[in-house]
Design a protein that fits this description.
- By secondary structure, this protein is of the alpha/beta class.
- 56% of the residues lie in helices and 11% in strands.
- The chain contains 9 helices and 5 strands; from the N terminus they run βαβααααββαααβα.
- Strands 2-3-1-4-5 form a 5-stranded parallel beta sheet, with helices on both faces.
Length: 201
């Protein structure tokens, strides 16, 4: 099954892109969704996080306080590395299972970390959702109610815009309207369906 990676920096519009692909009947495996699943209450990863960081990173119902954990790990690179060492192997295992059960003609694998991790090895092609960094910053601040310094730390921890574009097989420009974004996704879906039908994959 052909795996098409979709990536982009925070606030670039990856979810709008994958939602549009899904509307065409394409299966979506989203690394962010998988990352939430492995941290559900009762799962070993959440127990390890609680033991390491303390009750401070939990909500009252015992689930993960993502905003609090994000603040902790992006303020301390050593803590971020500890968290990644715990979660990345578990996320990779879950991703492989989900990709393996997807249906033709191709599957979308969405991840903000395709260019920073070995996740790119899952992909036959990579689509980068691209916007100027100023747009990333403004959209994320509005969406998540984070201050500018927090968003800039997250952006600094991700691959740069240039690094992502170097890995891109195809680029979606999301600096325009939602309608313009949808037109690009619709055209890409038609192109990918034709490509993989012809190749017999």
């Amino acid at each position: 099954m052909p795996v098409i990676g979709v990536t982009g920096g925070i606030g670039s519009g990856k979810t709008a892109v994958t939602d549009r692909f899904a509307s065409h009947g394409i299966d979506i495996v989203d690394a962010d969704v998988v990352a939430r699943v492995i941290m559900e209450p009762g799962r070993p990863a959440l127990e390890a996080v609680k033991a390491h960081f303390g009750e401070d990173v939990l909500l009252e119902d015992g689930s993960l306080n993502r905003a609090r954990l994000r603040q902790v790990v992006f303020a301390n690179p050593d803590q971020r590395r500890w968290l990644e060492a715990l979660t990345h192997p578990l996320i990779a295992e879950e991703i492989q299972q989900r990709l393996g059960s997807a249906t033709p003609p191709y599957v979308i694998f969405a991840s903000p970390l395709l260019t920073e991790t070995a996740q790119s090895a899952f992909c036959d092609e990579i689509i980068v959702v691209d916007v100027p960094e100023s747009v990333q910053l403004n959209r994320t601040m509005q969406r998540d109610s984070n201050d500018q310094a927090q968003v800039e730390r997250i952006m600094a921890a991700q691959a740069s815009r240039e690094q992502r574009l170097q890995m891109a097989d195809r680029v979606i420009d999301n600096s325009g309207t939602l309608e313009q974004l949808y037109q690009q996704v619709d055209a890409l879906n038609a192109s990918l369906r034709a490509q993989y039908a012809e190749s017999g994959q």
